Amino acid sequence: MIHICYGVSDKKGTYTKFAGASIHSVFENTKEWITIHYLHDHTLSTDNRRYLMQMVRSFGQQIIFHDMETGNLERWQKLEDSIAFLKEQTKGGQVNQAIWYPLLIGETFKDLDRLIFLDADTIINMDIAELWNEETGENGLAAVPDTVIQEGHFSMMVDKGLCAEERYFNSGVLLFDMKRFGRQEGLLEKGVAFLKKYDVIDYRDQNIFNYFFGEKCRLLPVKYNTLVAYEMVKKRENIGEAIYHYAGGRYAIDSVNNFHRLFLEHLTKTPWCNADFLSNMARQIHQTTRSLMLGYANFIAGMRRIVIGEEKEEEKLRKMLIIKDNEEFMTLKKFNSRGLRLEPNEILIFFVKHQEFDSVKKHLESCGCAEGVHFINGNIFIYRDGGQDAKILKES
Hints:
By secondary structure, the chain is α/β, with parallel strands linked by helices. It contains 18 helices and 14 strands. The chain has two domains: about 1-275, Spore Coat Polysaccharide Biosynthesis Protein SpsA, Chain A, CATH 3.90.550.10; about 300-380. The protein has a seven-stranded mixed sheet, with helices on both faces. Helix 12 (about 230-235) links the parallel strand 9 and strand 10.
């Protein structure tokens, strides 16, 4: 029996579907018996609980719900007082309770020999039994190095010398040997005290795990926690046998991108992908598109447009934008050779490649022009924005 743990606090009731997609991917790729341990609080709605049970039972597997709130009310109240310093430095002043659940694993699962913890934003495209059978470190913990941090991305822990860069791991996928990991009483409180003492609040629970267990943790191959954002930056699009971590909301309604398609393949097979979800998503897409077009209309009101794009796209852009006789279309090459001569009533709209726009943007800004005032990237009206897509999926 393989034991897998998720932790979710879902105030709006719209995030549980991501855990559902992850759980579905586990079952679809693993033949062994699995027990899902679902750590939650009062925000687990009746519908979401029913959907989880429905999906798990459809695979003939088992799920156990662990209410992390009811039996620990006094503890959570004390924690609220302790993390006041975090709320002051957090956008919106909110700290999702679920980030602390992994720190309670030692106390919650005293009767298990082994346990895998997975973030809800993971898709398992491999047999999870392979991870289950890996060795852990001396302290009973195994994790994957954080490739983003090791590529030089800023980390408070590394910057302050509290953890070696090459050993800093991502806590989105963790393997525990419970007998060696120990019972870790009070890790939550000790961890919060550590964050406050050293003021290392960028990755919170992840920093705590690295500080207390990083030295003797066994580092696993990257296939067990492959960061989708990192793969996309490196322009690696091939999907293999791996656990893909969509940290940072790297979801999009895009069947062309292999990572987005992989997520959608599993989400669409879950009970959450029903008529309500589809209609809500359609409404969100319509509202987002309408907002973009209204913004564009306000942006160009009374202005003369100068459209810059590829020569082969001229006819299509002229029709799409209904370019008037007194307006102009030119290639980027012609624009660069002509130099910047922008009249007060003129606006530049670029339909060029991402790298080319970044380059011309720097040049324009060095000349005193501002994006959104004097020029705009027209591709936002053609291609869906991944960040907007992630928001739409989350709120639908």
